[in-house]
Amino acid sequence: MADPKGVILIVDDTPANVIVLIELLHDEGYIIHEARDGQEALDLVETAAPDLILMDINMPRLNGFEACRRLKANPTTQNIPLVFISAWGELDDKINGFKAGGRRLHHAAISGRRGDRPCAHTHHHRAAAAPDSRA
Questions:
Q1: Parallel, antiparallel, or unpaired: how do β-strands 104-114 and 82-86 relate?
Q2: Span 47-69, pLDDT tens digits
Q3: What residues does each domain of the chain span?
Q4: Which of the residues 9, 46, 84, 122 could staple to 50 if both were Cys, CB 3.0 to 4.6 A apart?
Q5: What is the fold of 6-109?
C-alpha cells in the first residue's frame, strides 16, 4: 500500500458493520483501528492517534454519546473529528450527538455487497454552526 491517507478509529459493536467499513476504508488507503464500545475506544484513542473517529451510538459498557463527551473533554483528544454512524435516525439522537460534540451523524443501513464491494446506504446531518452571540 502507498502512503496511508490517514488513520480512522471505527467504534461499533456490530461485527458486520465493522467489516463493511474496514473493507471500504482500507481499500481507499486508510489505516483502520477498531473498538467494540466506547470504553474500548477511550482506552485505544491515544495510542491509535486517529485522524477521524467513526462511532456507533448504542453500544454496551459506554455508549457513543458518553464516549464522545469524554473525548471532547480531554485536551489530548478534543480536536479529533467524530462522526456518529448509527441505524438510529431519530431527531433526539441527532440533537444528542451534536450536543455531545459529534460533527455529523450518518444514518447508515448496511445492506451487504454490491458486486465485489461492500454496500452501505447513508444519510448525513451536519451540526449547524452556533450563531455568533457577539453583537
A1: parallel
A2: 999 999 999 888 999 999 899 99
A3: 6-109
A4: 9
A5: Rossmann fold (3.40.50)
Report in angstroms the alpha-carbon separations of 112 from 48, 55, 86, 90. 28, 20, 16, 23
Task: Kindly state the cell numbers that stand for 13.
Answer: 459493536
- % helix, strand, coil for the chain, step of 5: 35, 30, 35
Residue 38 and residue 72: Cα distance in Å, rounded?
13
Taking the chain, what is the end-to-end CA distance rounded to the nearest angstrom? Answer: 52
Q: Where would I find the beta strands (DSSP E) of the chain?
A: 6-11, 30-35, 52-55, 82-86, 104-114, 117-126
SS3 135: coil
Query: Could you tell me how far CA 135 lies from the centroid of its own chain?
Result: 35
